[in-house]
Design a protein that fits this description.
- By secondary structure, the chain is an alpha+beta fold.
- It has 3 domains: about 120 residues, NTF2-like, domain 1 (Nuclear Transport Factor 2, Chain: A), CATH 3.10.450; about 80 residues, Penicillin-binding protein 2a, domain 3 (Ribosomal Protein L30, Chain: A, 2-Layer Sandwich); about 300 residues, Beta-lactamase.
- It is built from 20 helices and 22 strands.
- The strands form 7 sheets. Strands 5, 6, 7, 8 and 13 form a 5-stranded mixed β-sheet that branches. A 5-stranded antiparallel β-sheet has the order 15-14-22-21-20, sandwiched between helices. Strands 1-2-3 form a 3-stranded antiparallel β-sheet.
- A hairpin with an 8-residue loop joins strand 20 and strand 21.
- It starts with a helix and ends with a helix.
- Keywords: Membrane, Transmembrane, Transmembrane helix.
- Belongs to the transpeptidase family.
- InterPro entries: Beta-lactam/transpept, Beta-lactam/transpept-like, MecA_N, NTF2-like_dom_sf, PBP_dimer, PBP_dimer_sf, PCN-bd_Tpept.
Length: about 675
């Protein structure tokens, strides 16, 4: 009975065990199949990824490794011909920035299928989401290549027709239509290999050519060794905006259209220059093409989008006879805009020349409209060289120059020195703490409020007493201005300053930091307050910000913002100071020129009715040591208020000043804008 029961139980378990075994066998079978499929998919993904990476890296010859010889032969090609076709087409259309997404590899109907999408840039910009598909070998290690893997829709012996209609870059012109950045004639200097001869004759010619172009012999040899060079091809070595003065035997000169800068060094920091688009540029902006140029500095960079325009043309698949099958890209050309500035080219050149290569800048503004007539910086560089290919020798000379020729001094912040005193005075008059007629008794050349100042003393140049506002401006008295600033106090002083442009971004296509009263929201001491009152301390304004701040004087208390683009509206800020205060200070600044003791009296010889204020900002580590002196002049036409000037000379030498450098410029402005 017991044995019979056990037998029955065992008989019941047997089907269950058999079932489990069958399930395990089925799971194992399909598990192996799944594993094999997954491994095959990974292999296929690696094959396709490697193939696309070779395209990305322009290693077209390496694509042969991923191609099936039988498949390539079946469509009428060899592996070498496929690689050459990629080389020819992708180079011809300037393919770059190739990116793949949505790669899939799967087995369908007994074959290993793959698909992916590519986006890349051509000479017309970005070509998005091209959908590719094909099959792989049985082991997934080779691609069964067909022409549709160049572009979807290609087959047989189809070709690519690539026609470019390049956009013309917009020019930058001055207020009178004179060119500042133009599309003019440039000179391509190069060689034709067969004309160089051979042996020592060739070596001698290359040496002479290299010397005339300020190149090394190896630079010429390197150009000649490029893969595309043939014996009768022109090989460019250098592009210049001016025709060469000497043409050694073997040097060829061709003319073409390129970017030129007629004012050269005189407007380099303002206008800037262009350069060829790089791979990094395209990564940042997919709309760019490798065939175009982009602004690298100055207005060329700031206004690049509207200047550059959009190149046009078409990219199409054609059959072997040239009949169009499919248009891949078609772009209508849009030329860049011409930008008209408020700049006066002649004044710009005179201002730059007047600086004589010394470190400094000149800014000229029409006070009523805010139009910037001049923004010059010295020393400078030739933007034509930067655009057309500068030699290493020339570039090193610029980059190693301690006076920093690439620096835009008209947009760099400095302590303005005594040119700022009229602003302080106006705030004091408006607040009722400064009486222009009150005379202060000041004895000696040094002064401090009390012993709490320690060894620190405010100094002045002339021992004059008593001193009122007019006397203080004529003699540029630091002690008077320090005392008046302390009298009004920090709260009143800052409230007055905050009516100007401190902390504001000016609406100009010029990179600059905002004007600064101090590095913190309050002065660290009374000494800092006093120093700021006569234009030192931590006060920072660049020359454009200075001339904007001082515009309240020729405009009866209204501040006029600067503008550089001719068709921009003039913006103003009314009642920054009272009109009566502006009139009082303007009269006193006229005396700075007319009074024989005035610090700008040398300008009286020009016979122009000017109001002016000079300034010297000293940069030093210790109170009694001699430091670097920056010289400033602010002057405006007090008769008609048609022009104003801020002249700046950095680290002035003994016997020089911004005032002396400004005379030719002021004479031209008076003759032209009276």
């Amino acid at each position: 009975m017991e044995r019979s029961t056990r037998t029955k139980k065992q008989n019941k378990k047997l089907p269950i065990i058999i079932g489990i075994i069958i399930v395990l066998l089925i799971v194992g079978f399909f598990g192996v199949r799944y594993y094999q499929a997954r491994q095959l998919a990974k292999t296929g993904e690696a094959t396709v990824t490697t193939f696309v990476k070779n395209l990305q890296k322009k290693k077209y010859s390496d694509t042969k490794k991923q191609l099936s010889s039988d498949a390539v032969k079946k469509v009428g090609y060899t592996k070498a011909e496929v690689a050459e076709k990629y080389q020819s087409i992708f180079s011809g259309i300037s393919a770059s920035n190739i990116k793949m997404k949505n790669l899939k590899v799967e087995k369908k109907n007994g074959a290993n299928h793959f698909s992916y999408e590519l986006s890349f840039n051509t000479g017309f910009g970005q070509l998005k989401n091209q959908k590719y598909a094909g099959t792989l070998s049985a082991d997934g290690k080779q691609i069964n290549w067909k022409p549709n893997l160049i572009f979807p829709g290609m087959s047989g012996k189809d070709k690519i027709n690539y026609q470019v209609d390049a956009a013309t870059r917009g020019e930058i012109v001055d207020r009178n239509g004179e060119g500042l950045a133009t599309n003019g004639t440039v000179y391509q200097l190069g060689v034709i290999p067969k004309n160089l001869g051979s042996g020592t004759d060739r070596t001698t010619k290359i040496a002479a050519i290299a010397k005339s172009l300020a190149l090394a012999d190896t630079d010429v040899e390197s150009a000649l060794s490029q893969s595309w060079v043939q014996e009768d091809f022109f090989v460019p070595l250098k592009t210049t905006a001016e025709a060469p003065t000497e043409t050694p035997e073997g040097l060829e000169v061709q003319t073409t259209t390129g970017r030129t800068y007629p004012l050269k060094e005189a407007a380099a920091q303002l206008i800037g220059y262009v350069g060829k688009v790089t791979a990094d540029d395209i990564k940042k902006n997919a709309d760019l093409s490798t065939d175009s140029v982009i602004g690298r500095s100055g207005l060329e960079r700031a206004l690049d989008k509207q200047l550059r325009g959009t190149g046009g043309g078409s990219l199409a698949i054609t059959d072997s006879k040239g009949n169009e099958k499919k248009v891949l890209q078609k772009i209508e050309k849009k030329d860049g805009e011409t930008v008209k500035l408020t700049i006066d080219s002649r004044a710009q050149q005179i201002a730059y020349n007047s600086l004589g290569g010394k470190a400094g800048s000149s800014v000229v503004m029409a006070p009523k409209t805010g139009e910037l007539l001049v923004a010059a910086s010295s020393p400078s560089f030739d933007p034509n060289k930067m655009t057309n290919g500068i030699s290493q020798t020339d570039y090193d000379a610029y980059s190693n120059d301690a006076n920093q020729p690439f620096m835009s001094r008209f947009a760099t912040g400095y302590a303005p020195g005594s040119t700022f005193k009229p602003v302080t005075a106006a705030i004091g008059i408006d607040a009722g703490t400064l009486n222009p007629d009150e005379e202060l008794t000041i004895n000696g050349l040094k002064w401090q409020k009390d012993t709490s100042w320690g060894s620190y003393q405010v100094t002045r140049v002339s021992d004059v007493s008593p001193v009122n506002l007019k006397t203080a401006l004529v003699y540029s008295d630091n002690i008077y201005m320090a005392q008046e600033t302390l009298k009004m106090g920090e709260k009143t002083f800052r409230a007055g300053l905050n009516k100007f442009i401190f902390g504001e971004d000016l609406d100009l296509p010029i990179s600059m930091d905002t004007a600064q009263i101090s590095s913190k929201d309050s002065f660290s001491s009374e000494i800092s307050l006093a120093d700021t009152g006569y234009g030192q301390g931590q006060l920072l304004l660049n020359p454009i910000q200075q001339i904007t701040t001082y515009s309240v004087f020729p405009n009866n208390g209204t501040l006029v913002y600067p503008k550089l683009i001719a068709d921009k509206e003039t913006k103003t800020k009314k009642d920054v100071i009272k009109a009566s205060s502006a009139a009082t200070i303007t009269s006193d600044m006229q005396a700075v020129v007319s009074d024989e003791n005035g610090t700008a009296h040398s300008l009286a010889a020009l016979n122009i009715l000017l109001a002016a204020k000079t300034g010297t900002a000293e940069i030093k580590q210790k109170q009694d040591e001699k430091g670097q002196e920056n010289s400033f002049l602010y002057a405006f036409d007090s008769d008609k208020q048609n022009y104003s000037v801020v002249e700046f000379l950095e680290n002035k030498a003994e016997g020089t000043s911004a005032t002396e450098l400004s005379k030719d410029l002021l004479t031209y402005l008076h003759q032209t804008y009276q």
